[in-house]
Amino acid sequence: MRRRSFLQVGMLAAADNSAAHLTNGASFYSDLIDDLGRTAMTNPYPIPRSSRQTDVLVGNGGKVYGPFDGFQIFDTEDVVVWSRGSAAAAFEREAVTVAKVGGLSFDFFTITFAANVPATTEFVVSSERVAERAVGVKKGTMLDMTALEKELSKQATVLQELRRDLDRALKVQFHHPPAAVPGPQDNRVLGWRGGRLANVDPAEFINHAGFATAEQGFKADRALQPGASGTEIGFVRAEAGAVVRTALDKARERKSLLDFIPFDLHACIIAGTNTQDLTSYINSALATGGIIDTLKYTYLTKSRLLPVPGTRLIGHGTFKAIFNSDADKFNDSAAGDGLNMMIRLCSDFRVDSGITFDGSSITTSNFWLYGARNAAAVNDLIFDATIENVSFTGIDISRNGGAWANSDIAVRGRIENCGWSGANLEGVTSLDHSGLSVYRTGWVGIFVGHCFNVVGDGFEANKGVPPYRIYNGPGSIGGGEGGFLFGHFGNHTARWTNFLLYDNRNAAFDGFGIGEDGSLLDAESTNIYAQGQIWYAGLFGFDVSSDMVADIQVWFPTHQGIQIGLDLGGTLANIDIRAQVYNNQNDEAARFSATGPAVRNCSITKGSNSVTVNSGTGFFLEPGQKITGIGMPANAYVGTVVGNTVTMVTTPGGSTPANATAAYGSVSLTFRGIVNFVNIRLDIRAVNCIYGVGIESGADGYATYSNCEVVGDLSTVSVDSVRPLNGDYPSGMAVKASKYKTSAIGKSTPNFSAIGNDTFLLNGGGTLNAITGGYDKQEITVYVNVSDVILNCDWNDVGGNGPNRLVGGGNAEIIVKAGGRFKGSYRQGVGWYIWGVIQVVPWI
Predict the structure, then answer these.
(1) Contacts for 332-339 with beta carbons within 8 Å, 24 or more apart?
(2) In the chain, what is the straight-line distance between the N-terminal and C-terminal CA atoms, in Å?
(3) Long-range contacts made by residues 179-187, C-beta under 8 angstroms, separation at least 24?
(4) Better-predicted residue by pLDDT, 741 or 480
(5) Predicted local confidence at residue 145, as pLDDT
(6) What's phi and psi for 37, nearest 5 deg?
(7) How far is residue 398 from each of residues 346, 427, 500, measured CA to CA in Å?
(8) What's the pLDDT at 581?
(9) Fewer CB under 10 Å: which end of the chain, C or N?
(10) Is the pLDDT of residue 130 over 90?
């Protein structure tokens, strides 16, 4: 008999559903046939290809997560969650509550953490089902197709999870035997022996694994033993050519200050609550030289720091002087040199930007403190730190009266809030102060003296930030702000560019000043280039030295924008200045200035050429200065100055004594120096100024001119473009600035005296009455710029013989056309005979 398949039996039963029943009493139609139909139509428990595990997820601040796309479970016990709080940590199993979404046999699910999960926490949701058979698939003599599908799907999930976990398991390559990880064993390393993983002795591992020589392996073995030091652990960098070194060598490459400070102080230093003086510990570190990291902490000090040559400070640390009370304040007296300083500068020393020296002393009365200073000659120094709140000078490179010769110095950084000077830089060969910024000083912002080969680009001095700082320690300046914004004295070969000097209005001193109150030889600077801006000078904006080229802008000077002169007399020569002066409503945009009188109380003795200055120290007199006063001969000049004793001679630089004419004892004498202006060119533009250029005539004998010229534009001045200061225009000075006006030229004026050879440029009509003073071989040249000018020339004979007129007598009235030139020559003859020559020629 031919057998029927199970499917055929089912179909026959379906044909007669009125009589066929399953063993549980249910009809074929209501159960078996239904299951067969469902099987034919769909899989009730589809299992997609997957690893049954989520990617690494991150928290969103909540507790509940899910359902997860494409990830379903049969039992909530199957779900395992692994989490970690940081990328450096390992994933650990996390207890969560699992709940199905719809209550189905194979369903999506959610997980609930015990606490909110932040975005810094990562987690992975995984199904790790343990296979079991709790329900059969047979119902009587028949199969339950739904139960069978469910069982097959459960097995499929387990197989997927096994495949997933197998991929993460330890594997060996083809043709190698299986390997197992041995159990942990103390003081052993995991390595290969005979093709299998084993616990290997460290010495055996190092010697035979090819990582080091036997000697190096011995060192490593000894270092790895319990209780041994780790300082001899060897290592080789990955780069080609690197040699074997030890961890100790590597650790000693860079030091930090904390390495030298007791450990029990570290916590309060890090927290910023330390109150203990750390000077001795810091000096222990500085005595070792090399690179020292200041980290980012504050270190309190009560006396100077003492680096040695070869030291470099890096990091962002702050050294702060202690000024808690009179009993607990900075005290540097133990140094014995009378200098109070936060740090002593030395050769071959470098302080990087980011480091700060805080003097904490700006409001401390009767105390002075330097931020940084040398106590001997220094070279190869780079100082780029911040110095602030010191009662005296921020940084001082001293030359000790010329005894110390410093070289190769770079001073940068920021200096702020100093009672005296911001930076005092003296006696340096090769000085670079580019980028140096100084703010709020009571005396000088930046001073550079007796230096050779100087570069300063983009530096700044600014006193305009209140409060204005005043030094009130020993020898203070009496509560008044003073000094230059930038001053220089006796320098050779200096290039200062792109500087900004701002707001010296409270000091009544120069913006860019030339210190000329010392020895005249020291005061002479040569080969100087200056280019920058000066704002709000309390006195002059820019003070000129010999051998200088400059391109300067001066804004709102209290007196002259450009000052060309010498306080103590001498020769000012070889100058080429291009200047723009804005908004000077007090004095001239520029001035050629003779020396002023210096009155001193002196003791004299008749017949002696020795004068004693009673004012003692603090006075400045120079050889060549003229001496006038009761008891002085007409031709007395300063010969030499030694202490407070002045010897007098009859001519500047001469040797013949000039003896006092009367024994007056104590008497006031006046000392004045002669200024010789030689080879000077001033190209000036005055904008919104009251006067243009002021010129000392030299009528009193204290100024002479040779090859001096003024050009530019003085058209916007409100009063006089050219301002004679003490009489006639001097010979040797040519003013050719375009479109200028003056009260004496270009207008009808009753009297205008011109003494010596001279040249004038006229810009406008009117009448010029030129009267000479009877000098021999005198010549006057007048250029006419815009409109016609009427010249009324009256040549006087000062010998008392009455007026002697040009061209055979009578006044010579001449009209000079615009674009023309008038040239009149005069020579005084003998007796009554005088003559003159007039030429009117085109202006070429």
Answers:
(1) 332/303, 332/304, 334/303, 335/303, 335/304, 335/375, 337/375, 339/370, 339/373, 339/375
(2) 145
(3) 187/224, 187/226
(4) 480
(5) 80
(6) -65, -40
(7) 12, 7, 25
(8) 97
(9) N
(10) no
Q: Which residues of 377-416 are buried (b: 16+ CB within 10 A; e: fewer)?
A: bbbbbbbbbbbbbbbbbbbbbbbeeeebebbbbbbbbbbb
Helix H or strand E encompassing 528: strand 526-535
Q: Is there a contact between 418 and 395 (Cβ–Cβ < 8 Å)?
A: no
pTM above 0.70, yes or no: no
**Sign of the alpha-carbon dihedral angle for 194, 197, 203, 206:** positive
Q: Name which residue leads in pLDDT, 283 or 710.
A: 283
Higher pLDDT, 305 or 509: 305
d(CA 44, CA 746): 116
Q: What integer pLDDT is reported at residue 22 of this predicted model?
A: 45
DSSP 271: H
The residues pairing with 827 across neighbouring beta strands, listed in sequence order, are 835
Whole-angstrom distance, CA of residue 520 vs CA of residue 641: 12
Query: Does residue 177 surpass a pLDDT of 60?
Result: yes
Give the DSSP letter string of 542-598.
EE--SSEEEEEEEES-SS-SEEEE-TT-EEEEEEEEEEEEE---SSEEEEEEPPPPE
Q: Are 666 and 603 in contact (CB under 8 A)?
A: yes
Range picked from 238-247, 378-387, 778-787 for highest mean pLDDT: 378-387
DSSP string covering 130-168, please? PP---S-SEETTEE-HHHHHHHHHHHHHHHHHHHHHHHT
* Strands in 322-398 per DSSP E: 341-345, 349-351, 356-358, 370-374, 379-383, 386-390, 395-397
Joined together, the tokens standing for residue 771 give 């009267």
Task: Report yes or no: 448 and 434 within 8 Å, Cβ to Cβ.
Answer: no
Rg for the chain, CA atoms, rounded: 49
Q: What whole-number percentage of the chain has pLDDT above 70?
A: 76
Tell me the C-alpha distance between 769 and 813, whole Å: 9
Long-range CB contacts (< 8 A, 24+ apart) of 187-192? 187/224, 187/226
Residue 264, φ and ψ in degrees, nearest 5: -70, -10
CB 754, CB 736: distance < 8 Å: no
Mean pLDDT of 469-483: 68
For residue 212, pLDDT over 80 is answered with no
